[in-house]
Amino acid sequence: MDYIEALYEEVRGMQNPAEAVKMASYMKNKFTFAGLRAPILNHIVKKHVKMYGRPDLKIETVVKKCWGYQLREMQYIGLYVIDLLKKDFQEEDLTHLEYIVTKKSWWDTIDHIAKHHLGHYVQSFPETKNEVIERWINASNMWMNRSAILHQLSYKERTDEERLTYVIEKKIDDPEFFIRKAIGWALREYAKTNPDWVRTFVEKHPDLSPLSRKEALKHIK
C-alpha cells in the first residue's frame, strides 16, 4: 500500500455519516464527504509524516491519486501533501496546479491552492510570474481568474501592487460573485499591511462593485 492509499484507508475507516451530511449540505451537495473536518485530516497527515516520514512523491502523483477519489476529504489531503512538497516545485508542476484548479473546483480547494500553491509557485519561478498570472487572469475558467486575484494573499510587504492592480482591473466589471468577493478579499488582506494604498485604490476605482468595496474597506477605520 502506497502513501496516498494508506491515507485514504484511514480516512475511509474514520467516516462519520452524520457529519458527512452536514458537510455535503454546506458545500451545496457538490461532493461526497466522509465527514472528517480539517483538524482531523491535519492530524491524520501529521501522524503519517511522523510514522513514515515526509512523502517522497511527485506533485503529479499526488494530483492523479487524490483527485481520483470520490471522497472530498482526499482532495483536502492532497492539498496538505502538496504543502509538504511545494518547496521542491518544478517548473512543469504548474500544469498540475492548473489541473486541480479546474477539476472538482469549488472555493474550498481553490482558495488554498491560490494562496499556498500558486502564490508559492510564482515566487519560486519569478521569471514566469507575469506570464503565468497574465494567462490565468485572462483564462475562460473563473476559478483560474479567482486564483490569479488571490495568489498574493500571504505576501504582505512583498505584495506587488502593480500586479494586484492589474488583476483587479482586468476583472473589475465581472458580475460573478466569486470574482467580486475575491477582489474585495485581496484588497482587505493587503489593507492589513498598507491601508492607505487600499483606501486610495478604492477611491480611484468607483467602478468597484459594492461587494468588492465593502470587503476591501471592512477593517479600515
TrEMBL record:
UniProt superkingdom: Bacteria
Protein name from the UniProt record: DNA alkylation repair protein
CDD domains (UniProt xref): AlkD_like_1
InterPro entries listed in its UniProt record: ARM-type_fold, DNA_alkylation
